[in-house]
Amino acid sequence: MGYLPPKTNQHYRGQSWAVGILALAAVHTLGVALAKLALPDSGLISLGGLNLAHEGGLQMVAMAARGGATQLVWGLVLAFIVLRHRDLTGLFVLLVAVEKALFILSGLIKPVNEAMALPGNVAAAVLLALSVIALFGARAAKSSD
Fold it and tell me: Which residue ranges does UniProt annotate as crossing the membrane (predicted)?
């Protein structure tokens, strides 16, 4: 394909498990994006348990779907890095860590008044921790066997 630069995976010197964590982040991001785009309620009721029976409920569904479109592109970028440009793993696990930290922070600053925790909170915390660990793995040279 003329639009894609040549693969650079051979230049990656970090640990392979760090790429696995980035792949996990890509799969999670793509899954959430597809749920927001495919589900009629964008997952806000069916997955998040939110009450949308108020003025503005339909706008929330539309906003979540638009957010899902952005997440879909971000997930495709992460998958592209995993498949073709692993030498950028360190940078992209850092970006995933920043994204998840901002996600958690925004939930603390602007909480949702619901009885249950939103499903994305737990996944964001796990992916934040794994991404921070992957930062070290992406920088560490593979051991010579």
Answer: 17-39, 59-83, 90-109, 115-138
The reported pTM is 0.88
**DSSP of 107-128, one letter per residue?**
HHHS----SSPPHHHHHHHHHH
d(CA 49, CA 33): 17
Residues 6+ apart with CB under 8 A from 95: none
Interatomic CA distance for residues 98 and 103, integer angstroms: 9
What does each of the 145 residues of the chain score in pLDDT, given as a tens digit? 588 889 999 999 999 999 999 999 999 999 999 999 999 888 888 887 777 888 888 898 999 999 999 999 999 999 999 999 999 999 999 999 999 999 999 888 987 766 666 678 889 999 999 999 999 999 987 765 4
Contacts of 114 (CB under 8 A, 6+ apart): 48, 49, 50, 51
Spell out the SS3 assignment of 7-24. CCHHHCCCCHHHHHHHHH
- Domain ranges, ordered by start, for the chain: 15-139
